[in-house]
């Protein structure tokens, strides 16, 4: 397996393409140049740092450092889930529900694949565990945040329907079912669309990376299929747990709708 | 007999009894808390105090079972499916009541989005009447209806009261309060009930 190695100096010319975007923004008064510069700087610093961190982790092969890196990834994912929601749950659940469900789903699916399909030695080897967790986490996070956003907004919008069902003796699950279905559909949809379009509309990043690194395309495809199955499983599990958990938190043991548990709307 | 003792919800604190086959009219200015009181009795919002039906406390039975016996009907009922009949367990059982309230039996196939406010109000009442609850908590059930439809709703509920159903009927219409109620409660701005003569 061989690949063409890049020096940092090789990146100067492609970086000029981003500079060109900045120049376009200035010329067309789009006022995006500051955001573009900041985003580009963040990307460079974050990726270079990640490169060094992964190099350290791969050399250490320590369960402690691997678990700490995974924990930090989940923390960032939970922050992102909250940031993407128009309305949030109050208190600890603001972060707890999204983080808990993402950790549960991504952690379970990643561990499953490490123990059953990839079987590296040791099983938590960061070279396999962290990239896998990262890809599953990113997709699970999208499903969880979309599912929770649709659930909370749906409950607020459909309050009269939910409460009418409750008033007629429906249980909280019967009353929330139409909203829960919408939330689950929204959470699953990006993964379904992604699976349908993959290979025709786009070549996925991981597969492209492996091919560029010299892996045979057919072998790269097998890895990509494994990743897609894991992503589908993780997203399904995480979204289901978050939406059902969210439904429980938005009602109480007396089957009452508890909109007082939603924090006031985020200002734009 | 529905017994409400020191029921507290926000600023409201009330105690009263509602006998079987009795209809109490409930009046008071807008925003004073009439709907809050009806919802609290149905246990739709967190509240304190005791509510019993024939001496059985609502805490001893599940909330859905309680609400099938003590049913709240909102002034603007909500709808969770696309057509009318999807909101009924058995549409055939609903059609005689629908007919009494001046709606055609074919309205079962109507999409919810084409219903007027008054049609929704009448169908919401039919939906609740089919439960044959012991107590009905009616929150301005005729606020969107014309005189003829109001009369048909009053007649339908009166028949249920004669058969033993207890009703707490919130209304802004003093004439209606006198027609439907055997007693009249007025909720004062402090959130307590005063019994007035009809």
Entry keywords:
heterodimer, A: 268 residues, mainly alpha, globular, B: 198 residues, alpha/beta, Rossmann fold, six-stranded mixed beta sheet, four-stranded antiparallel beta sheet, 6 helices, 10 strands, 31% helix
**On the 0-100 scale, what is the average pLDDT of chain B?**
95
What integer is the average pLDDT of chain A?
Answer: 91
CATH overall fold name of chain B: Rossmann fold
Estimated helix fraction of chain A:
over 70%
Structural class of chain A: mainly alpha
Q: Report the C-alpha radius of gyration of chain B, rounded.
A: 16 Å
Task: Tell me what you see in this structure.
The complex is a heterodimer of chains A (about 270) and B (about 200). Chain A is mostly helical. Chain A contains nine helices and no strands. In chain A, helix 1 (about 10-25) packs antiparallel against helix 2, helix 3 runs parallel beside helix 5 (about 125-155) and helix 5 packs parallel to helix 9 (about 215-250). The termini of chain A are far apart. Chain B has one domain (about 1-195): Rossmann fold (3-Layer(aba) Sandwich). Helices cover about 30% and strands about 25% of the residues of chain B. Chain B is built from six helices and ten strands. In chain B, the strands form two sheets. In chain B, strands 6-7-8-3-9-10 form a six-stranded mixed beta sheet, with helices on both faces. Chain B has a four-stranded antiparallel beta sheet with strand order 2-1-4-5. In chain B, a hairpin with a 2-residue loop joins strand 1 and strand 2. The radius of gyration of chain B is 16 Å and the shape is globular. The model of chain B has no long low-confidence stretch (mean pLDDT about 95). The interface of A and B includes residues 167, 169 and 252 of A.
Map the helices and strands:
The complex is a heterodimer of chains A (268) and B (198).
Chain A (H helix, E strand, L loop, with lengths): L11 H16 L5 H28 L2 H21 L9 H26 L7 H32 L1 H9 L4 H26 L7 H8 L4 H33 L19
Chain B lengths: L1 E8 L2 E7 L4 E5 L6 H8 L6 E6 L2 E2 L5 H7 E4 L17 H10 L16 H13 L5 E5 L7 H16 L3 E5 L3 H7 L2 E5 L5 E4 L2
Parallel strand pairs in B: 3-8, 3-9, 6-7, 7-8
Antiparallel strand pairs in B: 1-2, 1-4, 4-5, 9-10
């Amino acid at each position: 397996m061989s690949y063409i190695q890049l020096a940092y100096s090789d990146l100067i010319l492609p970086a000029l393409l981003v500079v060109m975007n900045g120049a376009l923004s200035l010329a067309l008064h789009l006022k995006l140049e500051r955001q573009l510069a900041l985003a580009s700087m963040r990307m460079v610093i974050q990726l270079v740092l990640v490169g060094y961190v992964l190099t350290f982790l791969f050399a250490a092969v320590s369960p402690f450092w691997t678990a700490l890196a995974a924990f930090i990834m989940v923390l960032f994912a939970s922050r992102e889930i909250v940031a993407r929601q128009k309305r949030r749950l109050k208190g600890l659940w603001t972060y707890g529900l999204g983080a808990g469900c993402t950790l549960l789903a991504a952690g379970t699916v990643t561990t499953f694949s490490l123990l059953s399909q990839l079987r590296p030695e040791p099983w938590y080897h960061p070279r396999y565990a962290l990239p896998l967790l990262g890809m599953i986490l990113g997709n699970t996070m999208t499903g969880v945040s979309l599912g929770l956003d649709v659930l909370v907004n749906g409950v607020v919008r459909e309050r009269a329907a939910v409460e009418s069902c409750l008033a007629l003796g429906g249980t909280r699950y019967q009353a929330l079912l139409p909203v829960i279905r919408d939330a689950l559909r929204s959470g699953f949809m990006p993964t379904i669309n992604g699976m349908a379009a993959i290979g025709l509309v786009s070549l996925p990043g991981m597969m492209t990376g492996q091919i560029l690194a010299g892996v045979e395309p057919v072998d790269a495809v097998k890895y990509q299929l494994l990743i897609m199955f894991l992503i589908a499983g993780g997203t399904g599990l995480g979204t289901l747990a978050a939406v059902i958990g969210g439904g429980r938190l938005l009602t109480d043991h007396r089957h009452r709708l508890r909109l007082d548990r939603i924090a006031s709307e985020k200002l734009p | 007999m529905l017994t409400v003792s020191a029921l507290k919800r926000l600023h409201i604190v009330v105690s009263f009894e509602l006998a079987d086959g009795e209809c109490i009219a409930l009046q008071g200015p807008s925003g004073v808390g009439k709907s809050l009181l009806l919802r609290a009795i149905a246990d739709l919002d967190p509240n304190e105090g005791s509510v019993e039906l024939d001496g059985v406390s609502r805490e001893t039975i599940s909330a859905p079972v309680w609400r099938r016996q003590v049913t709240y009907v909102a002034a603007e009922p909500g709808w969770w499916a696309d057509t009318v009949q999807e909101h009924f367990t058995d549409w055939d059982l609903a059609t005689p009541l629908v007919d009494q309230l001046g709606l055609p039996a074919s309205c079962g196939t109507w999409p919810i989005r084409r219903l007027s406010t008054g049609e929704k109000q009448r169908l919401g009442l039919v939906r609740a009447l089919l439960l044959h609850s012991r107590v009905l908590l009616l929150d301005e059930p005729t606020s969107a209806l014309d005189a003829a439809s109001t009369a048909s709703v009053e007649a339908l509920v009166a028949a249920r009261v004669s058969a033993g159903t207890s009703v707490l009927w919130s209304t802004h219409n003093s004439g209606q309060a006198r027609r439907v109620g055997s007693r009249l409660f007025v909720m004062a701005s402090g959130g307590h009930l005063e019994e007035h003569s009809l």
